[in-house]
Amino acid sequence: MPSRQSRAACWIHAPALGYTAIEAARTAEHVITIELDPTAQEMARYNPWSRSLFDNPKIIQIIGDAFEVVPSFEDGVFSCILHDPPMLSLAGELYSGEFYRDCWRVLQRGGKLFHYIGDPDSKSGARTTRGVVRRLQEAGFTRVIAKAASIWSGGLQMTDFSPTLCPSLHYCRSCRPSFQRCRPL
């Protein structure tokens, strides 16, 4: 498990086939994935391009509920968090102030939270985005920037919620080398 002394540690929620975790492990000392559904992990085992997810000693996979797992992490151990929860109606606790406070607590000074929230321009997406921004600010994220930025050619949209402690991407660049198209403000 990562500690505060880790150069770079990345926590990825809902890793799917593990491509992001594999890429992050190229430069991060530790990559932690949290997946609720063991079937998703089993599917990745059958994918030859996901082999590194299981073979790389830098990648630690946790099967469990992120809402229950994250409180067990030490304070300030992650340089970046990629949070890709199910839709709000299926996992409201992963959009809660309590969960965001835990995210803030485990993030290193200058770390970044990237939070997938769907289409922020849709009617429900706009409402979700407003609530997420408010709760993140209440949790301690004082520089919350809601912006859609395509980071994979497949069109996945991530929203960058950044704490103000350090506007630099210094820490996060070290654990997300494939995301160069996603630029800081």
What does this structure look like?
30% of the residues lie in helices and 23% in strands. It has helices spanning 19-24, 38-45, 51-55, 66-69, 97-106, 123-139, 170-175, and strands at 9-13, 30-35, 59-63, 78-83, 107-115, 144-150, 157-161. The protein has 185 residues and is of the alpha/beta class. It has one domain: Vaccinia Virus protein VP39 (Rossmann fold). The radius of gyration is 15 Å and the shape is globular. The N and C termini lie far apart (31 Å). Strands 3-2-1-4-5-7-6 form a 7-stranded mixed β-sheet.
- In CATH terms, what is the fold-level topology? Rossmann fold
The largest sheet is: 7 strands, mixed
Question: What would CATH call the class?
Answer: Alpha Beta
The total number of structural domains is: 1
Question: N-to-C SSE series?
Answer: EHEHHEHEHEHEEH
Number of separate helices: 7
Secondary structure layout plus pairing:
Layout: E1 9-13, H1 19-24, E2 30-35, H2 38-45, H3 51-55, E3 59-63, H4 66-69, E4 78-83, H5 97-106, E5 107-115, H6 123-139, E6 144-150, E7 157-161, H7 170-175
Parallel strand pairs: 1-2, 1-4, 2-3, 4-5
Antiparallel strand pairs: 5-7, 6-7
Helix pairs in contact: 5-6
